[in-house]
Amino acid sequence: MAAGLKTIIALSFVLAIGFLLVILSSALFQSYLTLLVVATYTIAPLPNFICGRCANPDDFMESSGSAIIDFGRFCTGFLVVMGVALPALLAHSGLIQVPAMVMSIIGGLLIYGTIISFTMFFQEEQDF
After folding, report:
1. What's the superkingdom here (predicted)?
2. pTM above the 0.70 mark?
């Protein structure tokens, strides 16, 4: 087992810092629109997971196309870019302040990075 207790503790610490930054960006500046970043970053890995499961329903055949996997990656990329662009758009339109935008983007990237790191460290390897 490559991932141990120290990895879980480190990932949970980084995830807590990311959530803290996003929550503080909304609470300190009295604009709760920045909480939409949390939704986009928590939903972002789902298209990869769903399309990866749908692409190869049969373990014995490798003839399935990669179009559905590419679609899942496209949707994930769209959600990640939206998580960065949404606070920038809100700051540009004057709905949130620039420090709230910076805190929200940094916190969102920490959240998404933690989710990706968790899936990389705790992936089950197939033996066949």
Report:
1. Eukaryota
2. yes
Q: How many H-runs (helices) and E-runs (strands) does the chain carry?
A: 5, 0
Which DSSP state fits 125? P
Q: What is the distance between the alpha carbons of residues 48 and 38, in angstroms, rounded to a whole number?
A: 18
The answer to whether 48 and 72 have CB atoms below 8 angstroms apart is yes
pLDDT 10s digits, 55-97: 766 655 555 568 888 898 999 999 989 989 999 999 999 999 9
Element holding 47 (H helix, E strand) = helix 46-55
Determine how many CB atoms are found less than 10 A away from the CB of residue 13. 11
Candidates 3, 1, 40, 49; CA nearest to 18 is: 40
pLDDT digits (tens, 9 = 90+) for 27-36: 998 888 888 8
